[in-house]
Amino acid sequence: MRFATLAELSAQCREADMTIGRYMIEEQVRESDQTEETVVGQMASYYQIMKEAVRKGTTEETKSRSGLTGGDAKRVMEYRALGGTALGGEASAALAYALGVSEVNASMGRIIATPTAGSCGIIPGVFVSTQERFGWSDDKMVEALFAAGAIGYVIANQSFISGAEGGCQAEVGSAVGMAAGALTELRGGTPEHAVHAVGLALKNSLGLICDPVGGLVEIPCIVRNGFGAVTALAAADMALAGVRSVIPSDEVIGVMKDIGAAMPEAHRETAKGGLAQTPTGKAILSDLRKKGGRS
Amino acid sequence: MRFKDVFSIMGPSMIGPSSSHTAGAARLGLTARQALGGQPDEADIIFSGSFAETYMGHGTDLAVTAGLLGCAPDDERIRDSIALAEAAGMELRFGTELRPGGHPNTVRFELRKGEQALTMVGCSIGGGNVEIVGVDGFDVKFGADCPTLLVNHQDMAGTVAAMALIVGRANLNIRAMDVDRQSRSGRALTVMEMDQAVSAEVRRELQALPQVERVRLIHLNEEEGQE
């Protein structure tokens, strides 16, 4: 890839007069030496898997193998059908879809890691709900997935995308930034707007630790995916309204790396700290160990 | 750059619950299978760091075993892989160890298949991506995200040039290369990460060099990568 920072990415897009998504398709074709049909086709097949995971997560039984989680997406779907959610219909759809995909993941179902499995609900939650609302074509959504990928590529190489390396800020935080930037572009924002959305979103999750109860990608990961989808909508709205990330987004990414590097091991997916070490968290872990980690 | 393209961020398509602990673990198992040259009869799988703490809950043991059986990260058989491996006669042992300073998600494989044995150390670096850092005592560094040649040879002047000539004549481009030796004029391992698939003919030519002991190919996306 010919860019390493978001500033370079947005300058190159402006120069080429392209969206971030379109530019990333061309970069991927160049880098992989494959045809545009092949790379776009692979992303399109990923989008179908995301949609299927949304469908499954919001309509079918999703009890996790541990038995600790499942069914929350359906609860939110039923509640929103009553009308009158505080979020309103559209944002509560993003919430429910994101929860659903994360529950499919926890039940050892098929998902697309975006960028990781722990954060796999956020992009499908934002994409599928806004596609329904605005009537966008699948082709447009697939191009926007490349925009999300371009943003994630910068974050991953300048910082982290795994909880074990950088905490939840690296995992859920990155996904929220990717979704926010891509949605900004889908709504007609410029690459500069999209980059501001990334910075705004990332600032909201700086310092977030990875503290999975029992070491499982369930508690608090699933609800953080739901919250993350809603945050991405908010970040895109702010950026489209002209709110700027005063600390440039590339500097925010640098801060995420510094914080992740300084984070104690206990707060990086080891289940040795945070929620995992509460009295209830410890009781769940000891119960899981008795059952050999699986129900 | 640790992450090379859009699909190292978007994807893989995988069975949950964790890209580091399940998808990456399956790819490490598959890499070890190919480095051994087939399905092991016996496998010691030793986890460290976060892997050691949480491998049961994430199904890391199931995923690694599925990889040893030749499964990709989105194979539905991952859930039942330990039972499948035992049914296939594979002897499996799981353990944990401390590796101070090592990557948080590290696994060491000790595999045996007939006369062949393999020690491999690999890390799951996020998003289903992996990095292999040790093969049979040699320090290496490769991602197994492209066709990768492992060539065991004598440390001797002209060897690297002879190997590069063979792949160059076949119009194959070396993306990255890493050479490590145990001692001067002793045993050495060269890792060549390639932009293109590597044919059996190219491997035979490499094998025919007098100073070459063994040629292996890691190619996770292609069945022909498996020997």
Describe this structure in words.
Chain B: This is L-serine deaminase. Chain B: Keywords: 4Fe-4S, Gluconeogenesis, Iron, Iron-sulfur, Lyase, Metal-binding. Chain B: It catalyses: L-serine = pyruvate + NH4(+). Chain B: One of its GO terms (biological process) is gluconeogenesis. The complex is a heterodimer of chains A (295) and B (227). By secondary structure, chain A is mainly α. Chain A has one domain. The termini of chain A are far apart. Chain B is α+β, with helices and mostly antiparallel strands and 227 residues long. Chain B has two domains: 130 residues, 2-Layer Sandwich (60s Ribosomal Protein L30, Chain: A); 78 residues, ACT domain (Alpha-Beta Plaits), CATH 3.30.70.260. Helices cover 27% and strands 35% of the residues of chain B. Chain B has six helices and eleven strands. Chain B has a six-stranded mixed sheet with strand order 3-2-4-5-6-7. Chain B has a four-stranded antiparallel sheet with strand order 9-10-8-11, with helices on both faces. Classes of the chains: A mainly alpha (295), B alpha+beta (227). The interface between A and B is large, with 67 and 42 residues. Strand 1 of chain A pairs antiparallel with strand 1 of chain B.
